Amino acid sequence: MSSLFSQRRQKHFMTLLKYWRLVFNDHFVIALFFLFGALAYGYSQWLPQLNSHLWWTRWLLILWFTILPQLGRLATLLKRADPIFLLPQVKAMENYLDHAYRYSVLLAELITIAGTAVALPFAMTTERLTNVDLIMIVITAMLAKENWLFTARKSISLRWSAQRWRSRFEYWVNPLIIAAATWLINPFAGLAVAIVLTLGMRLVYRHLTIDWRAAVKMETDRMYSVYRFFNLFTDVPSVQGNVKRRQWLSWLVNWLTIAGHPWSYLYAHGFVRNVEISGLVARLTIVGMLVSFFVQVSWLNTILVILFIYLVATQLMPFYEQYADNVFTHLYPVSTEDQVTDFRQLLAKITTIEMLLIVLASLGYQTNWSHCALNLVVGIIEVFLLVRFYFGTRIKKMNK
């Protein structure tokens, strides 16, 4: 079973690597570089403004260390056919799941350490912490995550898989109790609570015989969430986009549609009803608004506004080929030039809305109207250049 897991882990790495190369292309890496750099710079500028007498800082730390264990799930790498072909190896599956558990803990603890490292400067600014306290906080966070993964492990066992409400409750309540003891009492109390919960879970939940149906479903859901992320940047065969009837957005379809233009009608409906593309644009816009609102360094704020406008436009452009494989669209008595014109109109309208929202958010908590006006002028110029010139170069590459 150990060799089986090793083979699947290696194959899993190769699959992820194939998609990582497509996702983290040059443009996206540069965008991430500016984004994380801006967030780090804004974070460092914000910390000196804090003090130890703010009532909300501890509650924010409790919230952070409650959410942090939710990142990183149990990776079993099970497949749909395993309940048939591995059914005689039920007892040996405990060894397989032990390897999967250790693999998941290793990756998840790296995420936990990184998340804890992000929060510690804030904690050191608002709390009086010694070096020993910092060590205790890191260990406590790692134990909370290990406790979360053990909860996931027992949730795919025959005895406990039917009680999903219990696992969902423990996913959130256990980290909440640990975080509350850490920040409302002291780090030693938090560590003690984490140790007690970890040992108690292992005493209560024993004899974890695998429930095949629950285990396969958990892994299928996990991989689907991973593939959905990749599908935001490239086509993933195992992910099929969902289409929803959004009647409350009919006004948006009418606004995006040009009368008498069939491609405009098709693109407008496709954008609004396609969960993947409209969700991506909405999420990038919201993130851009939040970042531009909190980062108030003038030159950096303008760069971020430019960056997010560019990201939304470039992620929307591949939607031009959404219907390329539909044979009926090639029967339209409409020229390719009309198709390009209709999509350019759609791109211009959506990018303009996104630009206005991000520029408005760039006012920030300091309400700097002059800087907002500058961002508006820069945004209008960028939208014009992206729609008029950059989209034309992308079309030429798509048609090669």
UniProtKB/TrEMBL annotation:
GO cellular component: membrane
Top-level division of the source organism's lineage: Bacteria
Transmembrane domains' residue ranges: 20-43, 55-79, 100-123, 171-199, 248-268, 346-367, 373-391
Protein name: ABC superfamily ATP binding cassette transporter
Keywords, alphabetical: Membrane, Transmembrane, Transmembrane helix
Keyword Transmembrane helix attached: yes
Upper classification of the organism: Bacteria, Bacillati, Bacillota, Bacilli, Lactobacillales
InterPro entries: EcsB_ABC
